[in-house]
Amino acid sequence: MGKKDKPPRKGTLAYEADRHACYEEAVQCVESEIDFVDDTYKKLRRRRAKVLREDFCGTGNTSCEWVRRRKTNTAIGLDLDQEVLDWGRRNRVEKLEPEQQSRIRLLNQDVLAADCEAADVILAMNFSYQLFKTRDALREYFRRAREGLSDDGILFIDAYGGHDSYKEIEEKTKHKGFTYYWDQAKFNPITGEMLCHIHFQFRDKSWLRNAFTYDWRMWTLPELQEILVEAGYRKVQVYWEGTDEETGEGNGEYFPTNEGEDDPSWIVYIVAEK
Ligand SMILES: C[S@@+](CC[C@H](N)C(=O)[O-])C[C@H]1O[C@@H](n2cnc3c(N)ncnc32)[C@H](O)[C@@H]1O
After folding, report:
1. CB distance 77 to ligand 1 below 6 Å
2. Which candidate, 139, 129, 161, places its Cα nearest to that of 241?
3. Residue 2, in any domain of the structure
4. Would you say the CB of residue 110 lies under 6 angstroms from ligand 1?
């Protein structure tokens, strides 16, 4: 075990910390994600989506937001890791109103062998599909997701890129009670494979290192759009983030376009209609 992998010492803030809670705080904003999904589905389909399937759901936080939105909404979260599903059930699902709880299920299932009702919306967020490293494997996932959609269903994925995304660099962001580190540890330009870690550091300087590790492939936007079309989606559209005129930073509003900018780092949504 290297120095970087040492578990935190008893009595430190890192030892007491909950890695799933820190993850949600650092990388998720389920309210704005669901705003985008809900509004975009309504614009494209002229009706509200009801059934949402959250692939690679982790704690199921996004599914919980979906059932909070409307009484007619139901959610199914799929993940292979029983530990994270149990955490989500205890800390997220059980905190919902009983009636809301009756409209959500977190299932231990492989997204490639999903066995549940057809969904109006399937989400594959926080770049989770990047764990499929070959074109064939990724196309197969997109194809099976398409089969899991209702006739007018829509798949929503996010993607990130820009020249900073290919560098072996570490970026840190302060949050209440901890600092979040996104560590792009190893990039292989020949295969496109990237090894990334998430670390958290606390006020007493203690660390939760390698709290999460991602061994995945950096897919480009042209590749993702082509593979989605190959998987059978009728229409595939990238939604780029608008710019706040005062700060020059992203404004959290995403719009459909075929022309992006050479930003060092960007995040987009891709919307793939069945
Ligand atoms: C990056 S996390 C995504 C968390 C969440 N979707 C989010 O937006 O923050 C990836 C999750 O995918 C799960 N996973 C990996 N392979 C899977 C598969 N084949 N089927 C279902 N879940 C899988 C992992 O257990 C992990 O919880």
Report:
1. no
2. 161
3. no
4. yes
